[in-house]
């Protein structure tokens, strides 16, 4: 009986001390500690992160298809739909919901690994009305948890941010049809 009580006290003590230092809900948004590092090509460290609903979206600055730099923190005040794609031609379908998103107060940004010149050419050729952001290293996509380092490509998905830059919806690893993306975004905006 004494042995049982001793074991029970040990288990309770271990459980209490294990819960004393809870893990953070999500990785911080700074580059140096935004996630776990993984070895990339040539031995370079790659950043891998995750994004959770309720987090403030990690800030970034990327070149766009409109020949300018886009800084996420400068977009506060607008609802944002950030669409991640493995190929720039995937943004053609998203163009179909551009006006509907504008009608509910949501701006669209597309993001993929292509360079800004390729995105500019694609935007002109396919008549894409929203800005596409160039993430040629995949670093930003990786911080957002939407990068496949093995295949060196963006993972399809999208993120909805509110006017303060807070994550309200994350869909990762799926190519969602544009109309469903619009409906999920519409519901997210209406629920806030």
| Assigned CATH superfamily | Glutaredoxin
- In the CATH scheme, the class would be Alpha Beta
CATH topology description: Glutaredoxin
Classify the beta-strand content into a percent band. Answer: 15-25%
Proportion in helices: 25-40%
Structural class computed from helices and strand pairing: alpha+beta
Question: What's the N-to-C terminus distance?
Answer: 56 Å
Largest sheet: 5 strands, mixed
Number of helices: 6
- What does the average pLDDT come to? 80
Number of domains: 1
CATH architecture: 3-Layer(aba) Sandwich
Number of strands: 11
SSE arrangement, N to C = HEEEEEHHEHEHEEEEH
Catalogue the unreliable spans: 1-43
Radius of gyration: 20 Å
Order of strands in the sheet with most strands = 7-6-5-10-11
Q: What is the overall shape?
A: globular
């Amino acid at each position: 009986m004494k042995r049982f009580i001793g074991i029970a006290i040990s288990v309770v003590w271990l459980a209490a001390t294990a819960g004393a230092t809870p893990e953070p809900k999500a990785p911080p948004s700074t580059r140096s500690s935004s996630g776990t590092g993984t070895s990339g090509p040539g031995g370079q460290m790659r950043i891998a992160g995750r994004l959770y609903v309720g987090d403030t979206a990690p800030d970034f600055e990327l070149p766009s298809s409109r020949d300018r730099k886009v800084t996420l923190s400068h977009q506060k005040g607008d609802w944002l739909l950030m669409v991640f794609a493995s190929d720039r031609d995937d943004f053609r379908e998203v163009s179909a919901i551009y006006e509907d998103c504008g009608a509910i107060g949501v701006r669209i940004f597309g993001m993929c690994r292509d360079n800004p010149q390729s995105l500019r050419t694609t935007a002109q050729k396919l008549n894409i009305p929203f800005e596409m952001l160039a993430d040629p290293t995949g670093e930003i996509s990786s911080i957002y948890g939407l990068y496949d380092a093995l295949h060196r490509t963006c993972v399809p998905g999208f993120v909805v941010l509110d006017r303060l830059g807070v994550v309200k919806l994350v869909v990762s690893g799926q190519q969602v049809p544009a109309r469903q993306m619009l409906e999920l975004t519409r519901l997210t905006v209406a629920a806030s």
